[in-house]
Amino acid sequence: MGLLDGVSQNNPPVGGAGQLIDLGLDSKIYYEGEDGIQQTGTSNYGNYQFVSLEDIINSFLVAYVGEDKLISKIKRTDVAFHAQRSLAELSFDTLKSTKSFELEVPPSLVLPLPQDYIHYTAVSFIDNAGIKRKLQPISKSSNPIAYQQNTDGTLKFETNTWKNNILGHPQFEKYVEYGITKSYDSFGNQLAFNNNFVSKTPLRQYPVETRIDVTGPTRVNPGNGNNNTNYIFYTGNPNSAFDMQIRFHGDYPDIAVGQAVFGPGIPENTTVASVFEATTGNYRGTAITITNPAYEADLLLDVPTNTAGRPETTMQANTQVIVVDLNTESNSWQKYKSHTPSTTTSDDYEDDDRFQAEGRRYGIDPQYAQDNGSYYIDTNTGLIHFSSNINSKTIVLDYISDSLGTEKEMKLHKFAEKAMYMCIAYAILSTRANVQEYVVRRFKKDMFAAVRLAKLRLSNLKLEELTQILRGKSKQIKH
Asked: DSSP states of 402-419 as a string?
């Protein structure tokens, strides 16, 4: 039975904290796991300290809902909603909801945030001794949105000039946006014959952008010598050796696999599938094959349509084909990642070189007094950006989750079980009609008291460990 399934109040579900627990645990299964091998992933060590969210809901329905109780009746879906919201709120500041994420930093110096990321607690890299070396966040740099500019400093906008004239019918004479920016204002608009359409969205700055002009007439395969500057060549014939190809007259070394392709008649989400050199024909130089999701899906059909995802079999003069890497990159990020910090790479913790500037560090800002490296998190793109000295190192991101990611995560420590019940009860009573205000205030106080008690229980303070830490306070610190 799922968390959102209905349940009868007269027949409460079996199991949960509301009933007696059989303590006759099978130690062999616990220690060896279901496959009989310890620590293989099937074992669930230490799980007795937790109670599942489903058991919390079941127990709440038994103990707090029914005749002669403040909550006479309620749907299980309502309890499940408030239970999940309460678990998320408790995860932020009460429960031990910190998770770890370990990856190796690639040459791009960028890593994505975890799927269930809420906020970070620490970012570190692992040195040769297996010790975490904490990285410091940089607040003086970022990766802002960068826009392209004209020579006079004004923002640059995309101009679209393709007229789709089908069989000469005026109702089909439209201008269609084909550039990087798409405001979709031109779709369906009847525009004059010679008009250009300028997008209302300025062009963003990209790491690599290749623009190639179309100068020749509208033909499937311009073959005469006057059209060698035309670059586009493709065919809709799936049996042709040139299927899904674009051939350029000239070399364009910045074009690479995976870059997006925009142009007249080229479907959306088209990318470069391969790059090769054409040495024969009218167009000699860089050539590419293209693909897109619609084309790939059509190939998987028992009877392909041979039309889905394919470009129009025409070109239009005075337009462009644009091949671009859509990973936006600002000048700030380019300079930050290219800068090489002055660091000490030794993992020798008795290295005297680290203290050679003793007595000469007056006035240094403590937030920069470290040589481990730095990072910043771009919340708009969900990426972590690292300094260049972290390249190829293993980093560990300790972060906070809301404990609602998977079924195994939707559990609660028994020290906070009472707090969970109080949170659910207060959330239900505070959103119900005809509940006296003093009752709501009472449960609000009970909720805060239970949450405070849960924090104390989960704080895990040990007298011996605390004493050991306080012994260091007796050391003299020079200012």
From this structure: -S-SSTTTSEEEGGGHHH
Task: Identify whether the C-beta of residue 188 lies closer than 8 Å to the C-beta of residue 171.
Answer: no
- Interatomic CA distance for residues 280 and 287, integer angstroms: 11
Are the CB atoms for 427 and 82 separated by under 8 Å?
A: yes
Backbone angles phi, psi at 175, to 5 degrees: -100, 130
Q: Please answer whether residues 308 and 292 qualify as being in contact, where contact means their C-beta atoms are separated by less than 8 angstroms.
A: no
Indicate left, alpha or beta for 153 from its phi (over 0: left) and psi (-120 to 50: alpha). Answer: left
Q: Are 79 and 61 in contact (CB under 8 A)?
A: yes
pTM of the predicted structure, to 2 decimals: 0.58
Give the 3-state DSSP-derived string for 211-244, with helices as H, strands as E and coil as C: EEEECCCCCCCCCCHHHCCCCCCCECCCCCCCEC
**Inter-residue contact 386 to 110 (CB < 8 Å):** yes
In a domain, 3, yes or no: no
Q: How far apart are CA 98 and CA 95, in angstroms?
A: 9
User: What residues have CB less than 8 Å from 2, skipping those under 6 apart?
Assistant: none
pLDDT digits (tens, 9 = 90+) for 257-272: 999 998 877 888 899 9
- 358 within some domain: no
Residues 416 and 448 in one domain: yes
Does residue 82 share a domain with residue 140?
A: no
pLDDT tens, residue by residue, 86-139: 998 888 888 877 788 888 988 888 888 888 888 888 888 888 888 888 888 876
Q: Which two tokens stand for residue 124?
A: 């570190």
Answer for the pair 123, 384: CB distance below 8 angstroms, yes or no.
Answer: yes
